Amino acid sequence: MSNFSIITEFLLMEFSSTRELQVLHAVLFLLIYLAALLGNLLTCAAIITDPHLHCPMYFFLSNLSLVDIGNISVTLPKFIVNSLCGVQSLSLLGCAAQMFFFILFAATEFALLVAMSYDRFVAICQPLHYSIIMTPARCLWAAAGSWLSGLLYSAVHTGNMFRLPFSGSNVIHQFFCDIPHVLKVSTSNVFNTEFVLIVLSLCCLSCCFAFLIATYARIFSSVLKIPSVEGRYKAISTCSPQLIILMLFLVSGMIAVLRDASDTSPIQNLLIAMAYTTLPPLLNPLIYSLRNQKVTASMGKMIKRIFFKRKKC
Q1: Which helix (H) or strand (E) holds 306?
Q2: pLDDT of residue 152
Q3: Greater model confidence, 279 or 249
Q4: Distance (Å, whole) CA 117 – CA 212
Q5: Contacts of 192 by beta carbon, 8 Å cutoff, 6+ apart
Q6: CA distances from 218 to 6, 75, 129, 233, 239 (A)
């Protein structure tokens, strides 16, 4: 019992012991964070201020941008500050808060991507009934359900992870409080319960994945029936970005959960974590917004209005 100690804080992994490289990492991730933040904020502002973009597709896109802002703000700012200050510690409460919000935004993003896939399915496969099926009320309920499911899922996982004291090593081989690494220092009761929750989550993901495969199969079969080449290209360009982001999100997340965290190097940990924490918030504005002529035109008008108002003042 003399060697038993209760963990009150965690030590996050540093990717280099050299001070210059730590500052370089901080600057690099700061640029990534600012780029993702700017892209998603511009997307939200353009959709909110332009009445022509007040339709289901862009409503879900604005929610996705809000989720991406929260998702990347949970992990990167703390890592940037720690790298600049040369500190790796994170309090137990801070770890719980980071895990709660990260799971909340990740689960909500997945639910929103499923809703967006169904929206594209109705738009392409049942265009004449689109306005009847995708009503504003149903879109609002779908978005609210996505946020609520993310909240419940996050509360269950975080509550289970932190219901008992941690003991043993307090070193986390990741730049944020990720579930696989925190599980390594948890008690056996928490580990067993979390294992059951993860298995149930994978079963739900498998069902959602089967639904998405069937949905996109019907979408692409309907696209092939479109007579004009321009119509086929337009239909594919509206649904293929969602499929790419969804596959990246699912594959990287499943690798992070199922792999053995002790058998990977720090660089592999960083690259895998970036695939599901940093890349989606950074790439979503590029894939959804900058490739969309309506959104880019709305952004241009909004920026012009801001600059013209400043000049007049």
Answers
A1: helix 293-312
A2: 94
A3: 279
A4: 7
A5: none
A6: 54, 37, 16, 16, 12
